[in-house]
Design a protein that fits this description.
With 91 residues, this protein is of the alpha+beta class. It has helices at residues 5-22, 24-27, 33-37, and strands at 50-53, 63-69, 72-78, 83-88. It has one domain (5-88). The chain has 3 helices and 4 strands, in the order H-H-H-E-E-E-E.
């Protein structure tokens, strides 16, 4: 049986993104950008995943996070209300 490594990694990304989207309160418990970068679950994404955050001031009350692997993404907006959206960028 051959395993397509690229497909496996995409599945791994989508699976974790889906868990975060389904239960954001389990994962998104940070008050600042600095807390986001310390989140243990970031290491659960496949190697090669990148993440960026706006509001780089550690005291920022609102900030956005984009986590990407290939064309798949997870967008987290933190503010008065936290929203989470995942998807695939169009080609």
């Amino acid at each position: 049986m051959l395993i397509d490594f690229a497909e496996y990694q995409l599945h791994r990304f989508d699976e974790l993104a889906g868990r975060i989207q389904a239960e954001p309160e389990k994962y998104i418990n940070f008050d600042s950008v600095s807390d986001f970068y310390k989140a243990d679950w970031l290491q659960d994404f496949p190697q090669g995943t990148s993440w960026t955050a706006t509001g780089l001031d550690d005291g920022a009350e609102q900030f956005d996070v984009i986590i990407e692997y290939r064309r798949h993404f997870l967008r987290i907006s933190c503010g008065e209300k936290t929203t989470v959206h995942s998807g695939i960028y169009a080609e």
